[in-house]
């Protein structure tokens, strides 16, 4: 079972490989705002847990397990961003809020959020109703 920290690394590695075709220790460290030595330690742990294959001075590749988990984590992040957007959360708070909650929700909760978003997608007027209710509640405060 991946820890929240492992999830952050896997998500970042997956995104870097998807965007650039590779993930270097320096890119991971910069993206996560950690020291390269911390990245190396985590990469070794992820290698030990079969999420990736790491060869010192040669780089890393995600295993099928790592790719599957990385994609799942990126999808979860995007889903939560969409959810908070639909709820009307201020855009400047969304990233910070997603980072704060993504590791604390069960996959069952994520599935329920996904279902709720599909409900709104099927009839966008429902989102309009939600926003109207929010405006009414804000006016009452």
How would you characterize this protein structure?
With 141 residues, the chain is mostly helical. 74% of the residues lie in helices and 6% in strands. The chain is built from 7 helices and 2 strands. It has helices at residues 4-20, 25-32, 36-48, 64-87, 91-101, 107-122, 125-140, and strands at 52-55, 59-62. A two-stranded antiparallel sheet has the order 1-2. Helix 1 (4-20) crosses helix 2, helix 4 (64-87) crosses helix 5 and helix 4 (64-87) packs across helix 6 (107-122). It is elongated and about 60 Å long. The termini are far apart.
Name some characteristics of this structure.
mainly alpha, elongated, 74% helix, 7 helices
Précis, in short:
The chain is mainly α. Helix content is 74%, strand content 6%. A hairpin with a 3-residue loop joins strand 1 and strand 2.
Model regions low in confidence, pLDDT < 50 over at least 5 residues: none
Q: Which strands sit side by side, in order, in the main sheet?
A: 1-2
Mean pLDDT: 93
Count up the helices: 7
Q: Please estimate the helix content.
A: over 70%
C-alpha-based Rg, rounded:
18 Å
Assess the beta-strand content as a share of residues.
Answer: 5-15%
Order of helices and strands: HHHEEHHHH
Termini separation comes to 43 Å
| Overall geometric form | elongated
Number of strands: 2
The major β-sheet equals: 2 strands, antiparallel
